[in-house]
């Protein structure tokens, strides 16, 4: 199935990225940096961006403010081919935004405003459009909670839509119970290693993934940074290595992995092939600043994916 229509729903964030930052200057001090740029981001918007680059038809849904930041965010998404007509504008809260000081090694802390993302719930969701899509990807179901998320994911899955979700919060075990009502309606959970371990309290990543499977998730695909990804279903455990690239900034790599993984599924690829495409997309994004880094397409991602080792690493 090469025709893939995805709705990404949830967190829309406007990122301001600064690099390199080793420390915040004392008092009124100033430090010269190499680069400052803006990027659309968030588990819905960032994923939509890379999905569009990889050739999927993408509409994104969520809430932003009526502020200039919202205008910029939507404009940047539209410039990359993302349909933003389902995004609601709020005049009583600002667009969610982050300032990200990027360390020389590509890692980064964050200053974050939740903003309009917190205002979005099941009554806002475009249920009719979702039912017509092939895939629904929910970015940060924890912002609305599992009960609310289930009211969107449940009908979507019942309509034959392939459902997935990614998490924004690093969270703790209490967050697991908060999102648990949505888990039976997820075909795929896409998260990072820290999230899976902290939410489940499990000793190993595989055991953590199985905790989600026990709650009804069909497949758990977990990113492990420089160590690649681990995909766990009831039937198989798949390890996929990361690609050796020079990392400039890890912002948006998780969203890029989600996009590559979902694009692979939409193209009828296996879970392993989809995870390799996810790792390739993440590697392309990591080589520059921001979630929208890289002028690449599916062919470029596939060319990188083709360099993956054929055998599973031990």
What is the strand and helix layout of this fold?
Blueprint: E1 5-10, E2 13-19, E3 35-41, H1 45-53, E4 57-65, H2 68-79, E5 83-90, E6 97-101, E7 111-113, H3 127-132, E8 135-139, H4 146-158, E9 162-166, H5 173-179, E10 188-192, H6 193-200, H7 205-214, E11 219-223, E12 229-233, E13 237-240, H8 253-266, H9 271-286, H10 298-305
Parallel strand pairs: 1-4, 1-8, 2-6, 4-5, 8-9, 9-10, 10-11
Antiparallel strand pairs: 2-3, 6-7, 11-12, 12-13
Could you please describe the fold and organization of this structure?
- It is a single chain.
- The chain is α/β, with parallel strands linked by helices and 314 residues long.
- The chain has one domain: Ribokinase (UDP-N-acetylmuramoyl-L-alanine:D-glutamate ligase).
- Helices cover 33% and strands 24% of the residues.
- It contains 10 helices and 13 strands.
- It has a 9-stranded mixed beta sheet with strand order 5-4-1-8-9-10-11-12-13, with helices on both faces.
- Helix 8 runs antiparallel to helix 9.
